[in-house]
Amino acid sequence: MEKAIQIAYDAQFERKCQYAAEAGFRTIAVNYAPIPEQKESPCDTEGAWDRITENILRILEENNLRCIQSHLPYYDLLQSSEIPDERIDFALRQAIRSGGKIGVKYGVFHLRSSISTAYRPSKSFEDNRRIIERLLE
Hints:
Elements: E1 4-8, H1 13-22, E2 27-31, H2 46-62, E3 66-71, H3 86-102, E4 106-108, H4 121-135
Parallel strand pairs: 1-2, 2-3, 3-4
Helix pairs in contact: 2-3
């Protein structure tokens, strides 16, 4: 089994990758989840996400690391699944695109729950199916 450590992409990403390499890790999982919440560097354009991707690639190369998995941004866990969130939809699409460029094989995606229907599984499933279809277009 290949061992990897998950590292959140934030202001300390480069330092954390250096520590991981020094500890003997050769593979990581990039956690994209904090990106939409970063106030100091808004990521609401493709250009911003391109710069993030280029930065990740540079850091991986400098530390002789490769990325095999990503943790995608996720929706507000207290928001019901039928409520759209274009900001997170955009971040998810960009994280999937970025992951493809850095060699990610698997992306972790958190499904949503239909809170407004008392967590009815069939409604949650249908809402999530629509979300996933949109993301994979």
